[in-house]
């Protein structure tokens, strides 16, 4: 991929894989692979929602608490969301982010160039001219609570995005009901 290592990237993003120079971190600033990074905590939602005959739910709960206190985030497995739904959501996301910048900017989360709102599209904020940017564009949409969704901020394309997000929301509600119906409520009330 041209420009990824030497910092001589094209100034504009091309679909062929060129990386703009402002996204290429200077060699001396890159983290060392030898430094090692601990793996992201993985939480098994199935273990959290089962009766705790084998102690697995208590162990998983402790792991969840540790992940929240030390990392602030975690990866969930055994959540029951079908691979086909995850694939559909991923494809809808790729369709949205594959659009021209002008289309995505219609859903920008900066209002009148001054005020920021949580929902909407954004790319990395430029703090200074010489800043190396993280390659991150985001589309933040509130899906819960249902009555507080702002559909006017949701992209019209791809059409499948709204349906996928709604299906994921429904599945997450099912997971919450299952988790809260579990007989282990006393330790969760902390």
From TrEMBL:
Residues 40-156 form the Non-haem dioxygenase N-terminal domain. Transmembrane segments: none annotated. It comes from the Eukaryota. The keyword Transmembrane does not apply. Pfam families: DIOX_N. Residues 178-190 have a biased composition (Basic residues). Residues 171-190 are annotated as: Disordered. GO terms for molecular function: metal ion binding; oxidoreductase activity. InterPro entries: DIOX_N (IPR026992), IPNS-like_sf (IPR027443), Plant_2OG-oxidoreductases (IPR050295). Keywords: Iron, Metal-binding, Oxidoreductase. This is Non-haem dioxygenase N-terminal domain-containing protein. The lineage of its organism: Eukaryota, Viridiplantae, Streptophyta, Embryophyta, Tracheophyta.
